[in-house]
Structures are given as structure tokens and as C-alpha cells.
Amino acid sequence: KIKGLIFDLDGVLVFTDKFHYQAWKTMADELGVYFDETINHRLRGVSRMDSLEIILERYEGPDLSLREKEKLAEKKNEIYRTLLESMTPDDVTKEVRDTLTKLREKGYKLAIGSSSKNAKFILEKVELKDAFDAISDGNNITKSKPDPEVFLKAAEYLGLPPKACMVVEDAEAGIKAAKKGGMYAAGIGEAAKSINADESLKTFSELLDIVDK
Ligand code: G16
Ligand code: MG
Q1: Radius of gyration of the chain from Cα atoms?
Q2: Bridge partners of residue 98, in order along the sequence
Q3: ipTM score assigned to the predicted complex
Q4: Dihedral angle at the C-alpha atoms of 17, 18, 24, 25, nearest 10 degrees?
Q5: How far apart are the first and last CA of the chain?
Q6: Which residue stretches, if any, does this entry annotate as coiled coil (predicted)?
Q7: CA of 109 relative to ligand 2 center, distance in Å
């Protein structure tokens, strides 16, 4: 029996992927590294430093030290944070907001399970922070998705065993993480096609129909 839901942030509740793309693209252009939407797709749900490594697969310049890589990641984050400043509550659909409210009214515990270190900042910008009982994000984990750590922490914060939790994800790495953590996995968007997902959602509000099943 499902008692809690754990939501991925980017790609499920908000669409910050366009900002991630823009920020990485600016950095890649400066480095002279080829980067496009297809490569960007591989960055979904992946941590900042792991994302940088994926982009650097096409880098042909001199070897970069860890410090130089950290500088590049910091630079990307500065550009990304500036883009996030433009977000408002209108960046969350009514469907998402209403569904979260109804799930809570039904008695479900709700948490965020995001790889992002900017999760709290984003939730504040779109005024969604109060919709959740717990937030597990890039700041409280050591291993990024597909490792289940971020979701296991979210379940722990909710005080629920993993098997009583349903994870809602748009990325394959996130679906894999949920399954490895012993949770029920619902795919939306790109991850709705995942063969590893237990449920595939065409719309966000469909959650209300499948969660009690
Ligand atoms: C998000 C994005 C990833 C991003 C990661 C880390 O994860 O999908 O593309 O690389 O967070 O973000 P930051 O650089 O802000 O720490 P999620 O798990 O919310 O989909
Ligand atoms: Mg995501």
C-alpha cells in the first residue's frame, strides 16, 4: 500500500531543463566543445559534476585538473542560477498544483527527490515548498541517480519504508534508482516509455487514479 509519493523536480514538476541546456551550452561554446540537445538529454537527473564529465567526452584540449573542472561547474551554475531568477509561480501548472493538493488531502505524504543542489531555491521561486513534507536533494546525497540514495533519504525523511513509496520520474536514471531502492516507479514524459517503470503516466493528474490501486 502506497503511503507516500516522492517527486523528481526537473522534468516532473517544473521544466528547468531548458535552463540547464542554455547554461551548459554557453560553457561548452566557450570551451569549444560540441554540445547539442541529444547530448543534453543524457544529463537528465545526473549530478552537476557527472554532467560535466559527459560534456567533456568531446573535449580535445589539454587535460583539466579537478579544480579546473570544479571551476567550470561553478561557472555553469552561476549562469543557471541567473536563468532561474526569472521563474515565477506561473512556471508550475494548475494541474500539478491541484494534484499535489488533492494527494495531500487524501492523506499521502509528499517529498521531493531531486539530484539538484538548487532544488530549494527553485521550489521557493515557484512557491511550491509548502506542498511537501520533506525535501531530499543534491545537498544531502553522496551518490547521484541511478543510485537510490536520494529516494531512500526521502523515504526516511517521510518516516516510511521504501515499499510504501511511489517515485514519479521523467528520467531513466531516476526510474532505475527507484527500482533499486525497492520503490514503486511511475514514469512521466520521456520515462513513460521506460520498460523499467511500473506505471506510465500520460498526464500528471493520472496519479490520483493509480495511487490507490
Ligand atoms: C536535475 C537535472 C539534471 C541536473 C541535476 C543537478 O535533476 O535533471 O540535469 O544536472 O539536477 O542540478 P544542479 O546543478 O542544480 O545541482 P532532477 O533530479 O531534479 O531531475
Ligand atoms: Mg528529472
Answers
A1: 17
A2: none
A3: 0.93
A4: 150
A5: 8
A6: none
A7: 20
> Letter for the amino acid at 96?
V
Distance CA 60, CA 211 (A): 48
Query: HSE of 211 in the Cβ direction (CA atoms, 13 Å)?
Result: 25
Q: How many CB atoms lie within 10 A of CB 140?
A: 13
Which residues does 173 contact at the CB level (< 8 Å), separation at least 6?
44, 45, 46, 144, 145, 146
Q: How far is the CA of 213 from the centre of ligand 1 (A)?
A: 30
Measured by CA distance, the residue closest to atom 7 of ligand 1 is 45
C-alpha cell at 128: 511550491
90 labelled catalytic = no
Helix axes 48-55, 66-84, angle to 10 degrees: 110
Ligand nearest to the CA of 115: 1
Smallest-distance ligand from the CA of 20:
1
SS3 182: coil
